[in-house]
Amino acid sequence: MDNFMQAAIDEAKIGLSQNGIPIGSVLVLDGKIVGRGHNKRVQDNDPITHAEIDCLRNAGRVGNYHNTVLYSTLMPCYLCAGAVVQFGIKKVFAGESKTFPGAKDFMESHGVEVVDINSEECIEMMKSFIEKNPMLWNEDIGGL
Q1: Which of 16, 12, 1 has the alpha carbon at shortest distance from 52?
Q2: Which among 76, 97, 126, 138 is least buried, having the fewest CB atoms inside 10 angstroms?
Q3: Sheet containing 91-94: order of strands
């Protein structure tokens, strides 16, 4: 596991410790983390605060995003994939896509390189959360 994905996992664990949904994200520019975030839908009572959105907000304005790389513990959904495409982020590392397939094809169709790491730690973290909180998870992914 590289340090950047580990930082995203650490963010997911922060979210879980706050009784939120355990998804974390970091934005990397020139080999340095410039933004971190985790899903705060529960904590902030905000349906838009997915991990990647929180991460981008926390990074602030970075100018040109073409040299940034986004790491997320889960394959980004269409909302977050839309932000990736909108800002011109060219590479995304996803911790896993087994528990949620996300919008990989959408990102790739817009020229984004998507790497699915298939991390056992990320898979187990989400599986455990979904088993314990199926209604909250379905709300998060728009499945209700």
Answers
A1: 12
A2: 138
A3: 32-38, 24-29, 68-72, 91-94, 113-116
- DSSP E strand stretches across the chain: 24-29, 32-38, 68-72, 91-94, 113-116
- Tens of pLDDT, residue by residue over 84-106, are 999 999 999 999 999 999 999 99
* Alpha-carbon span 65 to 3, nearest angstrom: 20
Active site residue 52: yes
Q: What angle do CA 91, 18, 104 make, to 5 degrees?
A: 25
| 85 within 8 A of 113, measured Cβ to Cβ | no
Q: Render pLDDT for 14-58 as a digit per residue (tens, 0 to 9).
A: 999 999 999 999 999 999 999 999 999 999 999 999 999 999 999
Please say whether the beta carbons of 34 and 7 come within 8 A: no
Q: Do the beta carbons of residue 141 and residue 119 sit within 8 Å?
A: no
In 13-109, where do the E strands start and end? 24-29, 32-38, 68-72, 91-94
CA distance 5 to 26: 8
